[in-house]
Design brief:
Helix content: 55-70%
Number of helices: 5
Strand content: under 5%
Structural class: mainly alpha
Distance between the termini: 22 Å
Number of domains: 1
Number of strands: 0
Length: about 140
Amino acid sequence: MADIPRHLRACLDMGKIAFLAILVSGGIVLQILACALYNNWWPMLSVIMYVLLPMPLLFFAGSDSTSLFNESDNSWINAAKFLTGASAVGSIAIPSILKHAGLIGWGALAFDLSSYFVFIVAILSYICIGDDSDNYYSYI
């Protein structure tokens, strides 16, 4: 991308940020629709897991994100990986348990799980966009 003019490169970078913003806002809209369309606010319990999901990584891993993808001897990094995985499983388990208990219907379950998968796509897109060669997303 060295031959692309600077103003065009800045426009493409803003397009990447806009794409991420659209994905996250789409996930939020799906989460709200899971509650509002069925007049049942139990699916909002999964929002607690969305908030708790990045906390172990922020507290234990800090800014050393490369250690998350490698095998580590650091027990704090391993604890962060475990707690993040438990939160990710909880994000799927909470709507499933609510459906099994009869508190929400199939439509709310579908909206809630689709919201989760949209958030996962946004996170994976952020990881793919923010590779080590570009420091454009260090302020996010």
